[in-house]
Amino acid sequence: MEFVIALGLLVLIGLAVALFLKVSGIERNQGAPLEEKHRVMLRDLHEGLAKQSDRVGAALGDSSERLRAVVADELQQTRDRLHQLQLSLGAHLSETTDKLNAKIDQRLEQISGKVGERLDEGFKKTNETFVNVMQRLATIDEAQKKIETLTGSVVSLQELLGNKQSRGAFGEVQLEALVRNVLPPAAFEMQYTLSNGARVDCVLRLPEPTGLVCVDSKFPLENYHRMIAPGANDVERAAAQRQFRADVRKHVDDIAKKYILPNETSDGAVMFIPAEAVFAEIHAYHTEVVDYANSRRVWIVSPTTLMAVLNTARAVLKDVETRKQIHVIKEALSRLGQDFGRFEERMKKLADHIRQAHQDAEDVQVSSRKITQQFQRIEAAELEPPDAAQAKVVDLREDKKR
């Protein structure tokens, strides 16, 4: 509205300027006579402009009031719409917030449930793992205790084997345990005294021509321990090795001298070494000692090889006992043969009886069939003369004999 009014004012000003220029041009053309008209026109123009200015001012005042009223009304409507929009947005936002909160709560419950399940599974697996770990720890603890016990036993065994007297007792116990597990009581004797007064740790009573086999379980290990000592140098080790060979040879000589007696024991004796490591050391690095022992008829054995010797002895004893009982076996076989002959004869008689019973059953079946046929002919009124029926019976018997 204000723009329209300003435009009108500009138009009026333009018209006034144009009219002024026109009048000025006319005055220049016509001279002074027109000055009066010019003044009149200027006066009229000033009056017109004043009136137009008044009208424009009045219009502007009215328009300004109306514009203020319209603007105020529009502002009020805008405020109302903004208030309604605010209320609507608040309601929509509240509703959206409630829905969002509900979805968030539902999602949180689902997540909480899954997290709870995962935690339960995790706790369960953790518990199982913990139980397994505890079981393993218990097993390890038990194994540790066994290792400690075994360590104590090994230490005790080392102390035992370190003492010559204790080592001899240990060898005797091990020897007796091996012999008792393989041979019957009558096939051996522990701590047997020979005619020369020597007491041997064990004798094996084998059949002739072997006879008594003496087994010695004592063995020198002092130089062997010095030979394998961790702190020994090469010189000490070599010296201990030479002394060890000398000890073994001397022990072989003692066994051959004390435990191989003509007409009392066998022509050989057994030297039992209760340690597999010592046995392996002798056969691997001291073969000349083994050859020397074989030449003196002394057989060096370990717990493993002694088992083979004892099993061989048991097989020999079993064979001898079997030979002793051979006549009993022959008598038993003879009686068994007689019983089998009687069984065969009775079986033959039973077969004859069965064959005769089968023949009688066939005859009975033939008679039954004839009787059935006779009944059928009687029912059909097809009777034959007695002579013809008798002739048929004779023919059937002849056919059967053929």
What is the level 1 CATH name of the largest domain? Alpha Beta
Q: Main sheet? A: 5 strands, mixed
The span between the termini is 157 Å
* Helix content class: over 70%
Q: Assign the structural class, choosing from mainly alpha, mainly beta, alpha/beta, alpha+beta, or little secondary structure.
A: alpha/beta
Shape by Cα distribution: elongated
> Rg from C-alpha positions?
70 Å
Total number of distinct structural domains: 3
Mean pLDDT: 75
CATH architecture of the largest domain: 3-Layer(aba) Sandwich
Compile the SSE list and pairings:
Blueprint: H1 2-30, H2 34-162, H3 164-182, E1 188-193, E2 199-205, E3 212-216, H4 222-227, H5 234-259, E4 269-272, H6 276-285, H7 287-295, E5 298-301, H8 303-324, H9 326-380, H10 386-401
Parallel strand pairs: 3-4, 4-5
Antiparallel strand pairs: 1-2, 2-3
Helix pairs in contact: 1-2, 3-8
